[in-house]
Specification:
This protein has about 475 residues and is an alpha/beta fold. The protein is about 20% helix and about 25% strand. It has 2 domains: about 300 residues, Rossmann fold; about 100 residues, Immunoglobulin-like (Sandwich). One of its GO terms (molecular function) is serine-type endopeptidase activity.
Length: about 475
């Protein structure tokens, strides 16, 4: 990810960032969670250490709760939670390896961050009420980022999707939730949430080979949002559990190599926490936009589903610190999006926890959500996307639009130039996309819109899927 040990850090702020991990618990004794050199928890921390029997927090793991009724503490008896937590915020540990494989320094994205553990899953699975309780507690405790490498076995509509519901409430409190977009590894999750207020993450190898995909229908946001390393990831592991989980496996390891979108999710959680250390007042949507619009474009020829497999591209945390422009969104924007896809006030209450009436005579569509990406299918003759960007780069700046697209995707932008005179100034534009018949073998057409001021390049993918191709 271009995120080496010498990367620019805001260390004083980093030690105040709290990553909440909703997972299978944590292995306290791992070197990744040693609190040597750490001061007391941040003053904003309102949580507790209720990790149960034989569980004591420290200045690295500052909070713990467990909800499972088959295990009496927050210790990890699966390995999954330890692995994801150390990836997002584990300490730097020298000469870590899996029996000599992948030997080197292991560290999380923000090694000075604090970790709060919410054990909602165990060997018996993840109950919905446990997950919702974990979200409620994490929000009240004061976490800054939530890493949730979980999902359901089948896709669910938003009002029945506990991660979508929990993530919405987190968003209201300024907390970004990172979630796995499906799973191919040893995780309690198999299908990630598609809610646009979450950060949906696909897995890739470090050489950008894509292994996971999620495809949605027409007039929806493009998901997953981004790709991050998720194959053969070395991270902390409970020494009480064999690396394979088999009873016949008597080996004990401190670090294990596993794969899946569950492994890519904490990479993005950590990257989001890293951006937040430099921009503590940015909204979850702004942080998400910064990471999406600065992602490295990926090669669509290697995967027929293109952006529907890897979203905006491969994550670039360092570049995301200075994205130039961001696509911001608020509670009202998400409510309008829900209204546009047929949600009634009563259904919205299931998600938002309060009555939120749809605007009278509202005739917007899901495409109007101020999202950093755009998606459509050939069932729509022409798609119109209205977007608003906020200037977070240089106060006095001019951005010009550049479009890249194949001949069978016609994209127009109006206006083609955006001029800003101050920071945090907003400018709006309209993107129109129409489709011609593609070559017969094309399933997904990839295009892009880039706003550039000569310093920043703010890239939004435009993806169209073609159906009923003979």
């Amino acid at each position: 990810m271009g995120f080496d040990e010498q990367v620019k850090r805001n260390t004083k702020v980093e030690s105040d960032v709290i990553i909440g991990v909703i997972d299978t618990g944590i292995w306290l004794e791992s070197e990744s969670f040693n609190d040597k050199g750490f001061g007391p928890p941040p003053k904003k921390w309102k949580g507790v250490c209720e990790g149960g029997l034989n569980f004591t927090c420290n200045n690295k793991i500052i909070g713990a709760r467990y909800y499972t009724d088959d295990e009496n503490n927050a210790r990890d008896t699966v390995g999954h939670g330890t692995h994801t937590a150390s990836t997002a915020g584990g300490n730097l540990v020298k000469q870590a390896s899996f029996f000599g494989v992948a030997q080197g320094n292991a560290r999380g994205a923000v090694p000075l961050s604090r970790i709060a553990v919410y054990k909602a899953c165990s060997l018996s699975g993840c109950r919905s009420d446990f997950i919702l309780s974990a979200f409620d507690d994490a929000i009240s405790d004061g976490v800054d980022i939530l890493s949730v490498s979980l999902g359901s076995k089948i896709p669910r509509i938003f009002e029945l999707d506990v991660i979508a519901i929990g993530g919405f409430h987190a968003m209201l409190r300024g907390i970004l939730t990172s979630n796995s977009a499906g799973n191919s590894g040893p995780s309690p999750a198999t299908t990630g949430s598609t809610a646009p207020w979450l950060f949906s993450v696909a897995a890739s190898t470090t050489d950008r080979l894509i292994i996971d995909k999620v495809v949605l229908g027409d007039n929806t946001t493009l998901t997953p949002d981004i790709a991050a390393p998720g194959v053969d990831i070395l991270a902390a592991w409970p020494t009480s559990i064999s690396p394979t989980g088999s009873r016949l496996d008597t080996r004990s390891v401190k670090y294990n190599i596993i794969s899946g979108t569950s492994m890519s999710c904490p990479h993005v959680s950590g990257a989001a926490a890293y951006v937040k250390t430099f921009h503590p007042h940015w909204s979850p949507a702004a942080i998400k936009s910064a990471l999406m619009t600065t992602a490295v474009p990926m090669n669509a020829t290697r995967n027929e589903d293109a952006e529907f497999s890897y979203g905006s591209g491969f994550i670039n945390p360092v570049k995301a610190l200075n994205p130039g422009l961001v696509y911001d969104a608020s509670e009202d924007d998400y409510i309008k999006m829900l209204c546009s896809i047929g949600y009634t006030s009563e259904k919205i209450k299931f998600i938002a926890g309060k009555i939120s009436s749809c605007p009278s005579k509202y005739n917007g569509t899901a495409m109007d959500l101020n999202y950093p990406s755009m998606a459509m299918t050939n069932s729509t003759k022409e798609a119109v996307f209205t977007r608003t960007v906020t200037n977070v780069g240089v106060a006095n700046s001019t951005y010009r639009a550049t479009v890249a697209s194949p001949s069978y995707v016609i994209v127009s932008v109006e206006p083609k130039v955006l001029s800003f005179k101050s920071l945090n100034e907003k400018q709006s534009f309209i993107v129109k996309v129409s489709l011609k018949d593609p070559p017969g073998e094309v399933l997904v057409a990839s295009a892009s819109l880039v706003w550039s001021d000569g310093i920043h390049s703010v890239r939004s993918p435009i993806a169209a899927s073609f159906w009923n191709i003979s």
